[in-house]
Amino acid sequence: MSQIEVNRRLLSENDLAAAFLREKFGREGTLVPNLISSPGSGKTTLLEATVAAMSGTYRLAAIEGDIATERDADRLRRLGIPARQIITGGACHLDARLVRAELERGGLEADILFVENVGNLVCPTSYDLGEDFKVVLLSVTEGDDKPFKYPGIFSRAAAAIITKIDLLPYVDFDVEVVRAQVNTLSPDGRFLLTSARTGEGVDEWCRLLAEKLNAKRKAADRADAPGN
């Protein structure tokens, strides 16, 4: 069997698991954002700020993907939400079968289930996890050329979040250059500026999550209404 055939088979199996997850999340009314970025962009730190802002109103849970260690899941568990670590042992992305296996252990029932993918701007882009939408994060310390260098994730993400904007005075990063690139790749996507350290932009991110959760549940209610 050729490498191409193997890859096609893996993606096909992944897509079957993703379809199962999407139906499950829809039935349970759970919103699932899939967070993707380079290592060190601040995914976990943003989630910590999100938990602090939303945990009093919504049930939150998280699945963390990393090559090694449980550190990210430990950070979120300390904030009082259920969080599971999937250690890939070298794989550069999560896949839907791994997520399904973790959910089947139970204990991750939530209004919003965050999936924090392995730090990588390429591999996670191709794998459907049954999520509602992808989120790409870019820290100002990474440079303002990334959207056009990694168009796959920036064109597929429903939201692009610029992180660590409190460092803008100290780095060479042009927000408007990045905004123009993102708008070209994803004209209908949301563009957010955040600093988990100062709290700037976190409220806007939380409002986006609440809007998408409410829209998902309203759509489910309409589908379940008599006559549909």
Low-pLDDT stretches are: none
Per CATH, the superfamily is P-loop containing nucleotide triphosphate hydrolases
- Integer count of domains: 1
The helix content, as a percent range, equals 40-55%
Could you give the order of the helices and strands?
HEHEHEHEEHHEHEH
User: What Rg is obtained from the alpha carbons, in whole angstroms?
Assistant: 17 Å
Taking the sheet with the most strands, its summary is: 7 strands, parallel
Cα-to-Cα separation, first versus last residue: 45 Å
Describe this structure in words.
This protein has a single domain (13-218), classed as Rossmann fold. Helix 1 packs parallel to helix 4 and helix 2 (43-54) crosses helix 8 (202-224). Helices cover 43% and strands 17% of the residues. Strands 3-2-4-1-5-6-7 form a seven-stranded parallel β-sheet, sandwiched between helices. The chain has eight helices and seven strands; from the N terminus they run H-E-H-E-H-E-H-E-E-H-H-E-H-E-H. With 228 residues, the protein is α/β, with parallel strands linked by helices. The longest helix has 26 residues, at 3-28.
Summarize the structure.
With 228 residues, the protein is of the alpha/beta class. The protein has eight helices and seven strands.
